[in-house]
Design brief:
Blueprint: E1 2-6, E2 10-11, H1 24-36, E3 42-47, E4 50-55, H2 57-65, E5 70-75, H3 80-91, H4 99-117, E6 131-132, E7 135-136, H5 143-151, H6 157-164, H7 170-176, H8 181-194, H9 200-211, H10 217-224, H11 239-244, H12 252-269
Parallel strand pairs: 2-4, 3-5
Antiparallel strand pairs: 1-5, 3-4, 6-7
Helix pairs in contact: 1-2, 3-4, 4-5, 7-9, 8-10
């Protein structure tokens, strides 16, 4: 049954893992609601004197911005685990989900399955452990991907934010998640000071040193100060510029030899 509920009686799901900010997608939703209103009712459950949102956090966010007083809702009875699983399923397939959002969403879902099944999980679970009590968490080929996202929850907020904005790639971030919080903070501070992020190779080496008990501020600095191939200064010159000064019939190989010969002459005669 659909019922209109006062917006002040609607509350976001506890530990809702998805950010509610004024993104371009949110602006599009605002335009749609201004023109058409809220077409799809929210799904909520009764919690004490309030209604906890299962599906519709973005619509409620926009309603607040537009000063809408009441929203149509479908009220369902759910226990905590059922509500968590349903909330994640309603949101996880949306486009433009940040890595941190996906990571904590998967973690919430796994925790709910653990409670419901009363079994102990680790990050490296076996395929059959993901299908419990008729709740299919994912298909088997995606299990490794899910585990990797969950590992990101081990990152400190400063590093996780860098993953969200694309400054740290997923693969090195995954390796950095094995570092202690203290060493992660050292890496984060170094990134701020030097404006340089670790490559996956550097992150793997830091992880190995961490597991061997040998990672500290000095070793982190040594690794992070290494010159990276993509940070080396490059000189470029257009093909047309070179062609201006050389015979038109020259092949690329002949052009290369001519340039090397000219540079040798410059070097010998110190004309530069």
């Amino acid at each position: 049954m659909i019922t209109d509920i006062d917006i002040n009686k609607l509350k976001n799901f506890k530990d809702y893992p998805f950010k509610l900010t004024l993104t371009e997608n949110m602006k599009e939703l605002i335009e749609s609601i201004v023109i058409n209103g809220i077409i799809t009712p929210l799904i909520v459950r009764k919690v004490d004197d309030l209604y906890e949102i299962i599906s519709g956090h973005r619509r409620k966010y926009v309603a607040e911005l537009l000063n809408i007083k009441k929203i149509s809702c479908i009220v369902k009875e759910m226990n905590d685990n059922e509500a968590t699983l349903s909330m994640i399923d309603c949101n996880i397939d949306r486009e433009n989900i940040l890595p941190s959002e996906r990571a904590f969403a998967y973690k919430m879902k796994l925790d709910a399955i653990k409670v419901q099944s009363k079994r102990i999980f680790v990050f490296d679970v076996t395929p059959q452990d993901w299908k419990l009590e008729n709740i299919e968490f994912t298909n088997e080929k995606n299990i490794k991907k899910i585990n990797n996202y969950i590992r990101l929850t081990k990152l400190i907020p400063e590093l996780l934010e860098l993953v969200d904005i694309g400054r740290i790639a997923f693969s090195p971030a995954l390796e950095l998640s094995y570092l202690t919080k203290e060493n992660q903070k050292i890496v984060s501070d170094f990134i701020d000071m030097e404006d340089a992020t670790p490559t996956v190779g550097q992150a793997i080496r830091m992880k190995k040193l961490e597991l061997d008990g040998k990672l500290n501020e000095e070793t982190i600095e040594q690794i992070m100060l290494e010159e990276k191939p993509n940070q080396k200064e490059k000189f470029t010159m257009s093909y047309d510029q070179l062609r201006k000064y050389l015979p038109k019939e020259y092949t690329n190989k002949q052009i290369e030899k001519a340039i090397c010969r000219l540079l040798e002459d410059y070097s010998k005669n110190k004309l530069y």
